[in-house]
Structure formats: C-alpha cells, structure tokens
Design a protein that fits this description.
The protein is mainly alpha-helical. Helix content is 75%, strand content 0%. Helix 4 packs antiparallel against helix 5.
Length: 131
C-alpha cells in the first residue's frame, strides 16, 4: 500500500482541468501542481500542493506510520473525493456542451467518451440516446 494512486488520480484530474479550462497540456507529471497553480489557481491549488508535499516529498509515496501523519493522510484522502466531485461537475458540463454542439465530430467524440466513462445523469442519457 502506498499513496501513488492518490497522487496519480489527482494528477490526472488536475491535468484534465488544466486542458479544459486553460488550454494547457501537462507534459511531465511533476509539473502538474505548479501549472495548476499558475493557470487555474483556484481553491484546489493548495490541496494539490499539500498532496505533493506530504505524499511525495515527506512520505516518498509510503503510508506514514506516525498517528498524526496517518490522520493527515486520511484528511487528504477525504478531500480527494471532493476534488473528484468538482471534476465530475466540470466533465458533465463539458459533455453537455459537446452533445449540444452543432459539430457532428464533437458529438461523436462525446458519445465515445461516454461509452468509456459513463455518467449516470438523466439529461446526458437522454441526449446520448437521441444522438
């Protein structure tokens, strides 16, 4: 057990948000935190910094043994759920935009993405069924 998947998942989410909201593409994983702060700088920038500082630099991806550090990891993990929800709201908005698009290629790509990562959402399901 380690924190690699926590770092990986939040990094992928941050990368997707950077691409969607700022048109910035992350070339190296280690750049995601500072790129996120530089280009988006929202409430999640501090969270991403804390993850990087604690999980990578302080704990070297390992699960900490000290009770206070374990409590800190639990808090960071709980916050990851909120970050995922934030991303899913952004992803939902993106998919709806694409499904409403006049561009057939955009609609087709949205449908392809929904086959890979479906969203249980009545409006999206209705639009996808109509397409």
């Amino acid at each position: 057990p380690c924190t690699r998947n926590l770092i990986r998942t939040t990094g992928w989410i941050a990368s997707a948000l950077l691409a969607r909201q700022a048109g910035v593409y992350v070339g190296r994983k280690r750049d995601v935190t500072w790129l996120y702060r530089q280009h988006l700088g929202d409430e999640w920038a501090d969270y991403l910094d804390a993850l990087h500082q604690e999980c990578l630099e302080a704990w070297h991806y390992l699960i900490p043994e000290a009770p206070a550090e374990r409590a800190r990891l639990r808090a960071l993990s709980r916050r990851a759920r909120d970050f995922e929800r934030f991303f899913l709201a952004s992803y939902r908005a993106f998919v709806l935009e694409e499904l409403h698009s006049a561009d057939p290629a955009a609609r087709a790509e949205a449908l392809r993405m929904l086959r890979m990562t479906p969203l249980r959402d009545a409006e999206i399901e209705m639009l996808a069924a109509e397409a």
